[in-house]
Amino acid sequence: MRGGANLLGANPIAEVENELGLGALVFLLAAMACTPARKLFGWAWPMRIRRELGLFAFFYVCLHVTTYLLLDKFLDLHAVVSDIILRPFITVGFAAFVLLIPVAYTSSSYWIRRLGYDRWQMVHRLTYAAGVLAIIHFTWRAKLVVLQPIVYGIILAALLLVRVVYSSRKRRV
Fold it and tell me: Which of 9, 76, 143, 155 has the most CB atoms lying inside 10 A of its own CB?
């Protein structure tokens, strides 16, 4: 919509990449908020949409990476590898993407049965590390204006804190 109205600014490819990355982060945090919402407020409905939110996050991450690969780097794999090695914000962003691949791949009920719940849950804990890496990627990408990444980082920290508190209470019982 903004592209048709010529509102993407001087670097429209970077703007599209940024918007897709932000969309991925929002969906990732929404998926990660489902369990804390159930624990804090007793809401059951977020658990019914958690998988879809996570898959939307992965879809947006894939669009973000594809835009980078096709429109920004024109599939120049040497330039991509060089970016991953030499640009720390791309290194952590790529690591977050790689961590989300097994999470998305094993998101079906089939994989819960095949891996067993405990092993499946271990795979899906990669989401926490991917979330932290995504916040670092966003913060380093923003460079000077870091208020928005900090806000998202605080949200992630709060979600992780709820999990830690409930996990420690569970162990004491």
Answer: 155
Estimate to the nearest angstrom the gap between the alpha carbon of 73 and the chain centroid.
22
Q: How far, in Å, CA of 50 to CA of 47, rounded?
A: 5
Q: What is the pLDDT of residue 169?
A: 78
Contact 96, 65 (CB under 8 A): no
Give the C-alpha separation, 117 to 121, whole Å. Answer: 6
Q: How confident is the model at residue 9 (pLDDT cuts 50, 70, 90)?
A: confident
Q: Which pLDDT belongs to residue 10?
A: 82
Q: What share of the chain is helix, strand, coil (3-state, %, to 5)?
A: 85, 0, 15
Residues 160, 128 contacting (CB under 8 angstroms): yes
